[in-house]
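Protein 1 of 2
SEQ + STRUCT:
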Amino acid sequence: MNRQDLKTIIYAEKKKDETNKYKHKICVCCGAGCISSGSEEVMKKLQEEIKTRGLENEVEVIPTGCMGPCNQGPLMKFLPDYNIYQKVDCSNISTIVQSQLIEKKPIEDLLLFADSREKPFIDARDDPYFKKQLKIALKNCGHINPERIEDYLVHNGYQALDKVLFEMSPEEVIAEIKQSRIRGRGGAGYPAGLKWETVYKYVNDQKYVICNGDEGDPGAFMDRSVLEGNPHRVLEGMAIAGYAIGANKGYAYIRGEYPLAIKRFELAIKQSRKLGLLGNNILGTTFSFDVEVRIGAGAFVCGEETALIASIEGKRGTPRPRPPFPAESGLWGKPTLINNVETFAAISPIINNGGEWYSEIGTPKSAGTKVFALAGKINYAGLIEVPMGTTLREIVFDIGGGIQNGEEFKAAQTGGPSGGCIPAEHLDVKMDYESLISLGSIMGSGGLIIMDKSSDMVDVARFFMEFCMDESCGKCVPCRVGTRMMHDLLQKICDNKATQIDLDRLEELAVYVKETSLCGLGGSAPNPLLSTLRHFRQEYENRILQHD
């Protein structure tokens, strides 16, 4: 397929969309969270109800990806009115259809947020949950059918790839990414443009692009939801990256616990190949690029890029010393670009709208938006995307609806097992890379666990240390032995059997492990411990045995 063929298909799909015979579209969330709550049965029942009432020529029902507030699912969105119903089940489908479609009256008691907001927002976009968000990586998740490439094309899909292939040189693409100031969303926050430029400069007969979808942090599900809700966006970003650095092969490494994400991404690959958007001579150009999926086997350490590379190569997933960095010697010793799912999902908007547009969002040092997975003791747990620099208070109380049962906020744990805990006195901290580091935490991949007064911070530290201990690959002594020793000391404190000597030893060990571990897992494993000691030391001291 050449460029003109693509334009013809897009024009035809847009024309079909504009002249759509349907008066209403009902989007049923079929992301993993809502599916676990029964959304597939809800959608089937809804389709039957529509057919029974003779509305099949007026109402279109489609499955979508994540809409956001996962703990309120199954979710059902009526367009064009933008009424969203929460906790829908098969028993109230008939009532909703009768009131919403026949009588034209939304059922306010069943609308999203009706159970805790002062008033139900009939148009959900007026609620702070959506109003304070800015969706770039999550654009169109919850709005399109992720299993139809035509839905993606109608919403400017693959227009960025078309633009770079016919209007931009690889150097110009990299310059645009650098101008955007986007930093890798996998956790380290390294400038993506500089990484792309580094790989581009290495001359080699073969280069690779890897999408890191091995999301293993407890409480994190950002990448899963993007892959489930808009897989073509990630695929397009990978293809643009391949063009920019001179690679013709890509791998998407997705954790095995994400079967739906794997299924939809593999389907997206097949659809793109069929239309000539992947494979040889894309759109009639000399550029060739193809993608394969590699499934992770559940090892948290494989989120580290050198361990991930080893796993793709069929080896045991253990990190190796750097340098050389993957940009120089990565997959099978060739220059390799590795970015995570969220980073690739932001690439096509940057190309379409310009790097300057993206750089003006967020803060001077942390540009763009960030996807967070809200979990824990919060009213609206789920997926959000906000501009960098949005405060923790806005996220918890304006978007997240506050703490469950009206309890008092105690702390937020950011960055997964590598992150730290932020106490109530820092609720107004800006959620950007530098601000979180100054508090002893990190952005990480975007997990955000909210805790109330019932949370025991020593036990929180013990939980994350146990996770790191179990997930250590065992290659280096500081991580293999150090995490176990720290866990045992934390358990001793939790059991009220520790002394001041044990607490001192715990702090000393944390510094050793942080400074001497081989990879990021061991180097960041002490973070939850050190941050809780910094902000909640009294809880540790209250458990220490006192001796005369």
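Protein 2 of 2
SEQ + STRUCT:
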Amino acid sequence: MKCLFFRRLLLSLLFVAVATPRLAMAQSHDHGEVERPKVYLDKSARIVEYQLKRLDNARLLLVETKTDDVKYLPVFKAILLRSGLSRQNRDEALAGLVAINKTDVATELLVALESLDGEDKEEQRVGRQLSAILLSQPKDVLTGRLEELKQAMSASGVLQSTGFAGMIVAGEAAEAWQQAQVSADARVSYLAAVSLVPAGDLRDSLRDNVVSCLADDQDVAVRAAAIRTMATFGVARENTFERLADLVSQEALRTPAVRSLLKIPAAQRPVAAAKSLTNVLVKIAEATPAAKRTTNEFLDAMQLADELLARLPADDARAFRKRLQEVVVRVVRLHTVEEEMRYDKTYFAVEAGRPVQVVLENEDLMPHNLVITKTGTLKNVALEGAALGTTPGLDGKLYVPNSSDVLFATTMVNAGSRELLTFTAPTEPGEYPYVCTFPRHWMRMYGVMVVVPDLDEWQRNPVEPKDPLGNTRKLVQNWKLDDFDKQTIKTSISAPTSLGERLFKEATCLGCHKMNGQGGAVGPELTDVAKRWKGDHYGILREILEPSYRIEPKYAVKMVIDLDGKPTSGIVTAEDKKSISLLENPEAKEPKVIMKDNIEEIIPSSTSMMPKALLDKFTREEILEILAYISRAGEGAAGQ
């Protein structure tokens, strides 16, 4: 049973959709086969809606659908508006609605957005996904829907922001700005819409409007929204830093200002403004009671202060750091990157022999931990941790081996949670790796803690440490499917080469998949993937670049929030009126059972557990070599 559970969960990390086309059978929560559910579509609208609401996502997708009868409209609508379904599911539902109603995608999306409850959290999440689909439509499509977009600007919630963003993309930015002057709520929606507009010249052209919303005579909610939006512009970042730095002293605006300032690259933080802001932040630290020094807001402010010290002259930096050391421990914040199975920092520095507090904030769907190791022991520690299974290791922590090579470690941090790891840095300067030891994460999820004699001196002239696994690749581009042309891919796919095979291994694909008899056994065999996809190389590439585009519902993750606000995420193995059972990790012998009387919210996820950005360190030519290998490698094996 353990092996079965392991395979079920890890399939979410793999090319599930590559191996599993949509079927007329599905797995129930107890992993048994279930037949297509019977829904009586000839009943009244209320009865049909009731029947569909009772179905979980996996069974909803198995309801019969056709495009030759209006009775199937409620099914397509239910799929479009259901939380936790993938982009592909919504695209298919949209196509069904368009075919039956003889309309177009934009019309159906606007109708759907209008039907959503702006106060319901799940419906808000769905609304943002539908908004993204609408705004990805060609400009001429949005131009043809100006009247509907104008009406949406007078609505509320996601629909209102979508209306503003749609008007802007359609070329009616001036009218959208004029409509935003109607009320403070309208301006807040307009500001939220700016970040929905695709990054680039069009969004940047709206900066002056956003700056005007920072004025003292504006409502506090408007000013806070403007502050958040300022960080999304790619122009005049030095000016943005100076404007927002002046607002940190205002308590009501401090948190959004600090968080936006953190998003501005260090090189675009003017020294004079950085020095003035550091003085403000140090005074805030000195005035903050000890009991409030672990809040997210305070930690954000201290992270900003620490980063700013690197911009200051040596004497100023030392003086400020000395004052900070008298009241707070140095804070380093590490975030996990959603969907990418990596930390947001590949290295950070600490001063030898000084106390430090590392805050791990897990913003991913999977559980992660942070284990700091001795130099040269990263891989061994990770493998030993994985070998423990669910047997508690060091200090009772899962996946942390009881080894002298482990210096410091957190517990497993669940999705949406954080943990503070406080310790005194080693006295010996050097490069100490850190890693997530959750099974199979170590190949991508690691970094280096650099211990230095003088932190201020190092921060003025930082030296990037060596990759502890010897990986010398750097980011090439955040590849998107639109970066590749279908025809180019078709003509570029040639016979597999030794280079393609080497790159395939370098991309860590073999950690989970077998190809021609080599590789991991926990995922589906990829040797005949081209046959299963009928030679659709573009579709195969989509599965790699957009792993969340299509997800089998039975493998989708759900997050359960209990009445104390504690989140638990995992694959649902069973669910009834009284409880829900979640398999939290691949090594768990039994799922965790949570009683529904103790549940505040159950959030289905539309995010795949397979990491995206797997190919961001490869060139276009290298990606095509990998794709050629995946698409053609099985042909030779099949013919042998």
